[in-house]
Amino acid sequence: MQATLLSILGLALLGALHAQEGVPVQADFQEEQFTGKWYSIGLASNSNWFKDKKHLMKMCTTVVSATADGNLEVTSTYPKADRCETKNSLYIKTEQPGRFSYTSPRWGSKHDIRIVETNYDEYALVATEISKNSGTSTMVLLYSRTKELSPERLERFTQFSKEQGLADEDILILPKTGKSSWEER
Question: Where would one find the signal peptide in this protein (predicted)?
Answer without folding.
Answer: 1-19
